[in-house]
Specification:
With 216 residues, this protein is α/β, with parallel strands linked by helices. It has six helices and five strands; from the N terminus they run E-E-E-H-H-E-H-E-H-H-H.
């Protein structure tokens, strides 16, 4: 079998998967602050197996006029104004992420990046809102296509909650570390790779052409 079969650029229709998780100060991407963002890029080895590659992590200052929902920060334990966070402005974070993703996407010979996330619509909504506020015209990310590990885990593992899905896949998960963007992104990446690779080992990839026979 040709090595070209294993190229990441051929696995997801030319899309470059980037696993993302956000921590926020509410549920409304247009009004509530984005406080933390982490991303993991992926690579494919010579056996066609998907693995985590680079990790990017940003603590982010609330954008000007951002809404802070107390219940949200009580839940994730983030103090948005703590100097020890080492946070940077949202525009600086999102511009750096786009720069890093474009570089990795180009190296993988992919045409566009796609967000992979657990309950992807939520994370994608906050990323898209930050891109808009930052006035980024050429985002590497597809504006609406995403790979949702919630749905994939429901199909392959019978679980939809991240920790439960990881447990079903025998992936170690420390709930004390949960709701940190960096930790949740790493575990989501591990889960996504597990599901994609499992599908391959079961014979589901690469696709095999059906053999049609006829009797005369």
């Amino acid at each position: 079998m040709s090595d070209t079969v294993h190229l990441l650029s051929q696995r997801f229709r030319g899309y470059f998967p980037v696993v993302i998780d956000v921590e926020t100060a509410g549920f409304n991407a247009q009004t509530d602050a984005l406080l933390e963002l982490a991303a993991v890029t992926l690579k494919m080895d010579s056996n066609g197996l998907l693995k985590a590659d680079q990790t990017f992590h940003y603590h982010i200052n609330p954008f000007e006029g951002a809404n802070i929902v107390q219940a949200a920060i009580d839940f994730n334990g983030i103090d948005p104004y703590c100097a020890l966070r080492g946070s940077i402005d949202e525009t600086d974070a999102i511009k750096d992420l786009c720069k890093q993703v474009r570089k990795a996407q180009k190296n993988a010979d992919c045409q566009r990046s796609v967000i992979v996330a657990h309950n992807a619509a939520f994370d994608q909504g906050f990323v898209n809102a930050a891109l808009e506020r930052s006035n980024i015209k050429r985002s590497p990310f597809h504006p609406f296509v995403s790979f949702d590990t919630t749905s994939l885990a429901g199909l392959t593992l019978g679980q939809t909650v991240l920790v439960k899905a990881c447990e079903a896949a025998a992936i170690e998960f420390d709930q004390r570390e949960a709701h940190s963007a960096l930790y949740d992104t790493a575990k989501t990446a591990e889960l996504f790779c597990f599901m994609v690779n499992k599908w391959k080992t079961l014979g589901g990839w690469p696709l095999q052409q059906a053999t049609v026979t006829s009797s005369l």
